[in-house]
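Dear colleagues,

I hope this message finds you well. In preparation for our joint manuscript, I am sending the PGG domain-containing protein (Rubroshorea leprosula) sequence together with its predicted structure, so that both groups work from identical material. I would be grateful if you could confirm receipt.
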Amino acid sequence: MCKQISTWGIESYKDEVAAATFEAIASGKVDFVVEMMKFNPRRLTTVKDGIGRNILLAAIAFRQEEIAKFIYESNASKSLIGQYDNYLNSLLHVAGQMAPSVQLHGMSSPALQMQKEVQWYKEVENISVYSKETINVYGLTPHKVFTSEHKQSLFAADKWMKFTAGCYTVVGTLIITIMFAAAFTIPGGNNQETGLPLFINRKAFKIYMIFDAVSLCSASTSVVTFLGILTSSYNIEDFDKYAPTKLIVGLSSLFISVAAMMTAFCLALLLMLQRRWWILIPCMLLAGMPVTLFVLLQFPLLVEIFNLTYCRSPIFLRKRSVT
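The corresponding structure tokens are as follows:
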């Protein structure tokens, strides 16, 4: 098909191939674009959509990372990267526009959607050949386009961050209350003469106290972190790393706190029931259920935030000079 198309006249090529190409870009059909670029890259760089966007501008607008990377790393990018659409929007203006909703559906929260948008804008900023102060026909710079297009997203992301932090703060506060009390109402009680715990010389008791302290300190750390989120006001740039890092610290501390709390509970049972395994084992299995549920329900969010914040590789490896 590509061989046959390469023999078409320029007008037929622009009409038929352009429509198919831009539809392929919008829907993320990487193989189609790659094959078309291999057979006739020069002609493909001349086609434009209804508002004057070339194939690179379209790939940026539709957030098609693989297609944009392939076009950028090809020789054809030299003639594409400096072009505008009909409204004088450069690559950076297009990157500042709101992403199609279908590209954001896979993200689990508004905060992650906002983070993804900020990261995409910064990626395109690294390859833009024009100044950040370049304006379009509406007199807007790329940053102003990004800010105006993402007002609602910023509000939703900020609201989600604070609602989530508020929920986790309640959980952390309950754990602090429980573990603080558990440090003084110890298993077995105290010696009436010396005031020391009766099980002070047992290894399980020492481990119990360590896990109690770990749970208490971790819960305190998470509460302080989430309170910081609740009392902060975020701008767009904060959703790149600053705000997600706070959430990572708070969630990680809360996970450690819950796990340490249930471990301390199991050790307390071990001290009190004196190896009566017929009741110890069922109780320990039941104690593991909250931790398992918490991990299954909340751990994927932590992994997603961490990967998006610290494990993301650059899309465009080469950087061009600004004119």
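For the figure legend, we might mention the following. Residues 319-323 have pLDDT under 50 and may be disordered. The first helix runs from residue 2 to 5.

With kind regards,
E.M.
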